Task: structure prediction
Amino acid sequence: MLNFILELERVLKIWPDGVKWSLVQIAEQTRTKVPHCVEIMLDALTKNPDVHDPLSYNEVQKAFIVLRDRNRVALDSLLEQGRQAVQQAVESYEVVMDRVRGMEQGKNRRGAYRTLNYTYGNYLDLLPAEIKTSICNDCLRIGIKEKINFQELSQWLQRGIGHVMEHPGRDAVEEALDFLEAYGDYFLTEANGKGEKFLTNLLLRLKPAAMEWDLSPKLNEVASDFRLTEVMDVFV
Result:
């Protein structure tokens, strides 16, 4: 219940203007099983819709307010616990980064890479998206110097873009494209076209968001720079 309310709050912040979603779609957006979503929402909505009936932003927001107010004490307690856990994770990350910088200065890049890799896995569920993106960036930067294998590095690029897109919007799409552009040349050096295929798939995944936020020209520019013509829009 509490996690659903928090997820619903997140979804309301990114709800597209003028769009209506059904309970099935809300379940998908909140990463909740449909029966669980339906049970909670029907208890808070002012009507009794079918699971596929479209619901407006205002209807869902009113239901959210009802759920939030009913569970305010428990939510406040959960949020405070979460804030403390996040703060501890951030402080641990800052300590780790001091060590990593020392390792890099001492030319122990392999050790720095392993330390970042461990930190990422250990605090994945707690660190803010921007710190996780920074770790991915550092792992790519150090990993390329250390000749870490293509498969590992491709995962860091995918993760980095995924964390950037945790907060969807125009700025996120621009940052994701910049992130990809910064390392694209390296991946194109991979033999047998593996890097080209990998970058093409990443750009195609970003394409719907780029179109939504009028950033198709920027996406096409990145694709053009890497000669990934399969991605580009063709205007005749």
Summary: The chain has three domains: 2-70, 86-127, 130-236. The chain has eleven helices and no strands.
